[in-house]
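Retro notes (design track)

What went well: tokenization of the new backbones is finally stable.
What didn't: we kept losing track of which sequence belonged to which structure.
Fix going forward: every design gets posted as structure first, then sequence, in one message. First example under the new rule, 250 residues:
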């Protein structure tokens, strides 16, 4: 289905398929499966081998990389991560994304913006995607702690990676990959100077984490607190729209 155009009036074809496994995870899954099979069939230690085999299956599931249908709307900001919308707050954007980075490259303007935080559990897909298309202006890695990613201070204290994207019209969108309790490595797929399309894969975080998106001034969230987001598909916001949307948990 990759590259196929589908629309909201029935054009295209869609069917369920097994998601692929990202190469970053194959080595871990194969290693765990190999150890499990050796343990079971060579050493006859089934009490250890079968749990290891189950662990291999869990690793493959964690690194699954399904295809997504990305909305082709110039005003749409799409979710960069699968997971639960745990915070929608008015904050100052990270200093690493603001102003001049020392090379003459302009970053996000100073001032309060809306931040949407998406928490990824170990059961979610951990491939992250860009919320808009454009030029990768910055990629800033920050070492840090590994406290629970759903804490507000994780945005400033945990291991994290800031990404700044500039659209062709000059609009800048920043987002941050944040490691969590279990996560120990953030892996980028892009570098400054790369051109990316909306919803393109830009990196992953191993084993539980969070992604923050900083909306431009004058733009409000279209998702609700507690809503499930799907990377590359869920529209988080539309540029310039600030409509209040309410939901009921049921």
């Amino acid at each position: 289905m990759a590259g196929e155009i589908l629309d909201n009036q029935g054009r295209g074809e869609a069917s369920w398929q097994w998601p692929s496994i990202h190469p970053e995870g194959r080595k871990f899954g194969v290693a765990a499966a190999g150890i499990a099979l050796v343990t079971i069939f060579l050493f006859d230690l089934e009490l250890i081998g079968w749990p290891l085999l189950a662990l291999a299956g869990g690793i493959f599931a964690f690194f699954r990389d399904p295809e997504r249908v990305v909305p082709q709307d110039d005003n749409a900001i799409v979710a960069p991560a699968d997971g639960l919308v745990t915070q929608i707050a008015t904050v100052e954007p990270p200093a690493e994304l603001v102003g001049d980075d020392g090379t003459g490259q302009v970053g996000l303007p100073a001032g309060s913006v809306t931040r949407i935080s998406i928490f990824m559990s170990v059961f979610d897909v951990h491939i992250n995607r860009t919320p808009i298309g454009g030029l990768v202006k910055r990629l800033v890695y920050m070492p840090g702690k590994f406290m629970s990613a759903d804490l507000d201070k994780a945005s400033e204290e945990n291991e994290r990676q800031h990404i700044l994207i500039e659209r062709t019209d000059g609009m800048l969108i920043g987002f941050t990959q944040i490691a969590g309790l279990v996560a120990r490595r953030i892996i980028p797929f892009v570098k400054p100077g790369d051109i990316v399309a909306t919803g393109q894969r830009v990196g992953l975080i191993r084993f539980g984490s969070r992604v923050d998106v900083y909306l431009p001034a004058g733009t409000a969230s279209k998702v609700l607190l507690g809503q499930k987001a799907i990377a590359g598909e869920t529209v988080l916001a539309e540029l310039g729209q600030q409509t209040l949307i309410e939901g009921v948990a049921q």
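Added context from the reviewer: The helical segments are 23-41, 46-62, 154-157.
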